[in-house]
UniProtKB/TrEMBL annotation:
Protein name, as recorded: Protein Smg homolog
Superkingdom, taxonomy of origin: Bacteria
Family in the record: Belongs to the Smg family.
Length: 152
């Protein structure tokens, strides 16, 4: 699934440039991805797109401290929770985007939740919203795609 999401980030600078689901599925199959991997990635992306309707807009209006629930603590390692808080504290994620990221991480199977997948999920949340990313933070997140910095 993550290879498909990384491909989408690299192939489409603007999420609006992505073809409809069926056409995108055919394009991904032609690029050599397996059907199950394509389906999982597109389902995950559909869930992300549904969150873009303003589901978490109220989070941006608040000024409180975010505590992780028992389920979030159990499924998201301290390293991942630290990444989320770091991205928010450094202006890479708004509170609403933080909630979208947590939602999308919890939508993954436990064995697929890792620091690199969390970085990719953060990039996908920002990509889906057309959000800008601070350059130094973006470089670190982009390492999740290739394992090395890709920005100059």
């Amino acid at each position: 699934m993550f290879d498909v999401l990384a491909y989408l980030l690299e192939e489409f600078n603007d999420p609006a440039a992505c073809p409809e689901r069926d056409d995108l599925g055919r394009q991904l199959a032609a690029a050599g991805f397996e059907n199950e991997e394509i389906s999982d990635a597109l389902d995950w992306l559909d869930g992300l797109n549904q969150l873009n309707d303003g589901s978490y807009d109220g989070a941006d209006a608040g000024s409180g401290f975010r505590c992780f629930s028992e389920q979030e603590n159990a499924r998201l390692s301290g390293e991942i929770r630290g990444l989320i808080l770091f991205l928010e504290a450094n202006g890479a994620l708004s509170p609403a985007q933080r909630e979208m990221l947590i939602d999308r991480l919890l939508a993954m199977p436990d064995d697929e939740i890792s620091l690199p997948s969390a970085k990719l999920a953060a990039l996908m949340v920002l990509w889906a919203q057309g959000a800008e990313l601070p350059i130094l933070l973006g470089e670190d997140l982009l390492c999740a795609l290739h394992g090395e910095p890709t920005m100059q």
